[in-house]
Amino acid sequence: MTSDILKQDLERFYDFLTSNQVRDFVNNPVFKEHLNDFKEGFEILKTNTSDFQDISEQKIIKIIEENIEKINEIIFALRMPLAISRMNMETYFVADMCSVGIFSIILKKTGNKNGIAYDFQGNEIKNTKYDDLIKLAKDNPIILKEIIKFFIKLDLILALKNYQGKKLENILEMTESLLTYSEKGGGAEKSGEMAERMIKYKLESWGLKKEIDFNKNDVYLKDILLRKIESLEKEKKIPKQEAEKKKEIIKKEKDTRQYDLIFPGIGEPKLISQVVFYSSNTGSEGSKKVSQNIKTETFIKKILEENEVELKRPIVIDGPGWIDMIGPLQTNSYLNENLLQINTVDTKLKKMLNNVGFVYPIDVEMGILELKLKNKTTSKEKVLEIIVNKDNITANKDEIISQNPQFFDGKDDEDVIELSKDRHEIGKKFLILEKLQEISPSNESQKFSVLIPSKTNLEISDTDIFINKDEIGLQDDEIKTILKELEEEGTIIIQTV
Amino acid sequence: MDHEEFFRWITPIDIVDNDDEEKEIHKEIFSEISCLLKECPVIERKELEQYVQELTIMRRESLIKLFRILTGTAKTNFEIFFAWYLIKKDKNIKLSIIESNRDNPFTNRLTIKKKEYTNTIKNFAILLDDPHCRTHFFNYFDEKNLLKKIKAIKEEPTMGEKILEQLIKFDQRGAKASKRGSAAEEITRKKFEEFGLERNIDFNLTDFFSKELIIKQLEKSVNSTNKIQIQNKINKIKNTDLDRQADLLLFLDDPAIIIQSSYYNSDTASIAAGTRDQNQAELEIITTANEVMDTNKILYVGLIDGVGFHSIDRKRYESLIESVEEYFGLRTTSTKLRKSLHNVERTVPIDFEVALFLNNEETTEEELIKTVKKLYGIPDEKIIKDLKKWKNRNKFENNLDKIKLKTERVDLAKKFCVLDIAYLLAEKDKEGKIIVPGSDIPVNIDEIKRIILEFNAQVEIDVEEVIKKLEQDMEIILIQE
After folding, report:
1. Is B153 in CB contact (< 8 Å) with chain A?
2. What are B97's strand-pairing partners?
């Protein structure tokens, strides 16, 4: 990659970086729930201790026992003023329990797998996540006592006495900041999940179905490859004996890497992707991904050999953390045509999926709409004709029909295919997006230019757009409104001249 | 792997103790808030904007620290999100890509009025001179209810200060976490010094590229019969993508062990998996090199420890441990790591010092070699070679034809003597009370005393006291009555 191209790719990457709404944990409903939990727990403690005057280890235990259904809320209110996060409980508290001999590590065998669990009074505790610990404390006075002891060691009594006579609104104001820090880890994890959800939401807006057109949960690379080999074997692209050998190798592989997006969700995987969303600087994580990527790529190529081209593997990279991590972004060779961002899902990812043979409801809807806008009949034959002739579509007519039976089943060539009313707006949006990608930039901008992610990012002028408006089939105002909408959602960038 | 054993020896405490640093931050933040409350009797936006303008850059940096801590914003997050906020809110502020003179061709900068700024607190403090940036700055913190929080402290100063203290603790956690890895390495280095090793002579102080080291080892191994074979391996290794730096190396003059550290105090999610992949790639190269080397083989060892493993997905830590040839933790450096060294037929001065101690602190070279062999099972020729090396480095006192333990090393030799006997020689006994690494069956204190006597040692040793010290150092576990 030449220096100029690398620079341009970096600029475009940051242009289309998702806005910080994904990371804004404070506005997340979970944050509000936590704050309410604190408030509830705090009120119980305040009421039962005469505004924190009558405080002792025994008293706190008694309050929890008498309000056992609210144990989660009370423990929450106790750990906040001590700066104890959920993770602190899962690590230091559990380690503390092991060191005082209340928990002892036991070896656990499930089938051929070894794991660990904790022995507590002859009972096996398999999970020690925060919620499990709270549940345990709810059912067992010894654990409850130990949690309170753990807090007392960290000066709980003094922290609670400090609340004496203070206004609730002031306490809540300051607790909000404690909560932001305390749940930061959870918030970062949630932002990764939220990024995936945003992508899947976009996919559903194309008319895709979860679990059929794409996966619901993350899938192990091993399982993806097994599915691929089975399909290649069925299609007789690899002989049975060889397929069996490959399956054995896959089963023996210890790698536990999972993929976030798999197309389709069932049957032969054709495109898989991982979402690398960093909400902050993750330190060495960026460089660790290099080894992981090399290893995964080597394994996929080893298994699929010449068929590896039949499994596309773009990567979604996004999140404000990359502002601070421009180094790994360059060293990891991420900036190639396989790079996707949340804001390029509707353009680049869709094109990639069309290229590997998928035709989705939105493609059919765009075909119908295009005919309608040109006042042409939307017969089955015409709709199929218009779809099959598009540059990015590789499926033939039969494949289009079989992938979209809801439009074509039981219809003759002359039968009219209708577009449901609630799909007009989205159809128009995608039609404009598609047409914009087809325009070759040739004219100077008058008022603005549009930057649109394509295989390479494409910059076209307003003159280009309006010269080609007959191709689009929409009025100027309507085009402008949709462009504005696309800009607001981050799919395109409008630069005023 | 033995999961029970692994978890039994995890270090249960926080190894980063930078209270002094935290005290300094307390001082800075508390003086900043008291100045603010004193200088701004009315806590309103206009007054605060004026207050900021009058401060020096350094004071503004402190004030930014106060504002971000009050609003629960970590330093890195502030640098990233405030920069992003400026770009999104102000069309005149851009993120530009500029050429870099560092490792990568480009870096990014904020461009404001044709001037470029890195996203640092200092630059943000400077930018507060600009009225637009100042407005954005206060808008950013307004969204985080900064004013309400300052008012809460003003109304309830004692409670406010107490909560501010906890906020500082939370804020420092990120900084502490980033130091934990190097703190674990430093603790290990100090242990190496107990072994009698020296910084920059026997082990490294800064990370080094393992690929370069392995190639050097291969080059050293060339002889008339393996020249082509070795060159092929070198070419193969040169073509790999491995650019990893290793944390610790024993020894600098004659490498034997590469140590990669993974010290986690919380669930690091996919980081453990990333490290595992890096380890596997590195181990593969080491294994390839070891295949053609007769004398310069490298052992690939992991320093794997930290309470974080209690919450890390089991598959992840299991495969992390399997990605190295052997592993140890901070509590098992003196036992497991030393045993790894002995297994590759290497010694450290403390091995000889323990042997000297058992020979009444002074003995002949011949007797010393015999005792070292009896204790650690290393071949004679290797012991002789290493003894020469340590003697040349004045690790012992020479007394005519005898070798003598240095007085200042007697206590350490005593400690290691009891530990080594318990770990390496003592028969396990269900009635015993001392758990040492490698087994869940304890050792009986009488067995340790018996073995000491078997060596004919007439030295004074209060085994009970040494055991107590070893327990304090967390190198053994005592079963409580």
Report:
1. yes
2. B108
Other C-beta atoms closer than 10 Å to the C-beta of B27 total: 10
Checking ipTM against 0.95, whether it exceeds it is: no
Question: Which among B90, B61, B59 has a CA at the least distance from the CA of B78?
Answer: B61
Kindly give, in sequence order, each residue whose CB lies less than 8 Å from that of residue A258, ignoring residues fewer than 6 positions away.
A218, A219, A220, A221
Strands (E), B264-358: 299-305, 326-328
Q: Do A128 and B278 touch (CB under 8 A)?
A: no
The string of pLDDT tens digits covering residues A385-418 is 999 999 899 999 999 999 999 999 999 999 999 9
The verdict on a CB contact (< 8 Å) between B119 and A324 is yes
Q: What's the rounded mean pLDDT across residues B4-30? A: 84
Q: Identify the CA nearest to B450 among candidates B408, B414, B418, B475.
A: B418
Other CB atoms within 10 Å distance of the CB of residue B40: 15
Nearest to A90 among B151, B267, B275 (CB): B267
Cβ contacts of B86-91, under 8 Å, gap ≥ 24: B86/B110, B86/B112, B86/B133, B86/B136, B88/A19, B88/A20, B89/B136, B89/B139, B90/B132, B90/B136
What are residue A11's phi and psi, to 5 degrees?
-60, -45
User: Token pair of A45, please?
Assistant: 């403690």
Contact B106 A330 (CB under 8 A): yes
Q: Is B244 on the interface with A (CB under 8 A)?
A: yes
Cα–Cα distance for residue pair B396/B353, rounded to 1 Å: 8
Residues of B in contact with A331 (CB under 8 A): 103-104
Whether A330 sits inside 8 A of B77 (CB atoms) is: no
Residue A195 has pLDDT above 80, yes or no: yes
Any chain B CB within 8 A of the CB of A100?
Answer: no
CB pairs under 8 A between A and B: 213
Which residue of chain A comes nearest to B159, CA vs CA?
Answer: A162
CB-based contact B173:B75 (threshold 8 Å): no
CA neighbor of B135 nearest in space, from B66, B58, B48, B68: B48
The amino acid sitting at B226 is N
**What is the predicted pLDDT for the residue at A112?**
45
Report pLDDT digits (tens) over A78-129.
999 888 888 888 888 988 888 777 888 776 555 544 456 788 888 888 888 8
* A94/B269 Cβ within 8 A: no
Nearest by Cα to B363 from B459, B447, B449: B459
pLDDT recorded at residue A236: 93
Nearby residues of B250 by Cβ (< 8 Å), 6 or more positions away: B192, B197, B202, B203, B256, B257, B259, B341, B346
Question: What is the pTM assigned to this prediction?
Answer: 0.77
Strands A271-277 and A315-318: parallel
- Local structure of B402: helix, strand or coil: strand
